[in-house]
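Per reviewer request, we include the raw input and output of the structure prediction for the construct analysed in the revised manuscript.
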Amino acid sequence: MLDWDHWLVKWRVEFWGREWNFVDIGTFTSLVFLHFLSLFAPFYFTWTAFWLAIALYFVSGVGVTLSFHRNLSHRSFKLPRWLEYFFAYCGVLSLQRSPLDWVSVHRSHHQLTDTVKDPHSPVRGFWFSHVGWTIDYRGRNGNYEPRLKNVGDLKRQPYYMFLHYTYPLHYIALGVLLYFLGGMPFLVWGM
């Protein structure tokens, strides 16, 4: 049986008892905001907004699975440059960080799978391996090869460097665009 008191104390220490930086605070704030925004979904339901949410789910999902994972991380196939960039941009809209960051973490994960140095290691517990690592920038980047050292192939392309330094702005621009196109229903359901 799980010792809930022990687990809760451990979680509090790992979550609150560490040094937070700007990236951690921004990521945590974004996660809280999006979950808060979802509470308004029943009040802003329209079928158009619903289908927009489904479409954006697939667009960003293709961006992450096809582009970030298969194409950029594993180099499983080649695409024309314009199509590679398009799919990578779709992945940016998922709010899962920049292509450089995502690919770097994933390549490190495969190199160090299920060890303490794995960026989202299950050895550090269920919470950390599923959510905690996303808001522990120093912990995740201090446990494996120095940040972005394993993505030299992508760092040589100015497009990926641009997305790396501006990725939150693209997501904010998506929110503004959705609001202007369809008001609160598009914002709530699209984000």
